[in-house]
Design goal:
This protein is mainly beta. It folds into two domains: about 70 residues, no CATH class; about 60 residues. The longest helix has 7 residues. It is elongated and about 60 Å long. About 20% of the residues are buried.
Length: about 150
Amino acid sequence: MTKQLIDMNEETKARLDSILFRGKTEDGKWIEGDFKRGINGNTLIGGHEFMPPSPLDPCGDTVYFLNEVLPETVGRFTGFFDAEGKIIWEDDIFRIDLSDSVVHYYVGFEDGTFVLYKKDGTKWGTLARMFELEDKFPFKLVGNFHDNPDLLK
């Protein structure tokens, strides 16, 4: 069952009002926020972060941050959440339990919509269709192909 935006707190709703991206830094940390290109052509993810009060700034402040990320890891928020309320991203991998086997699919973007691809790269259908069939074919978010490429072998 997908988690509805209405059930979320105001901060989360505000974050999702714009297109949300994520990317992975060279040291392996995932960053979420706005997608930017640096003047050198580097790939950046940025966003706002609250800095708590300190002796130098007793009120705290909101600052804009930018982190360089590996371009091949950048993915978009799909607009969907899994049954546990986790954001589903482009490049995420799902395990789907069929009656006689277990298969893995990954999320891609094609012709303006998020789709699921089989291990061999052929398209299965849309991400929205997977949620329509959730009662018949249970699925679980098990990783992404940047952190877990072995799931697609």
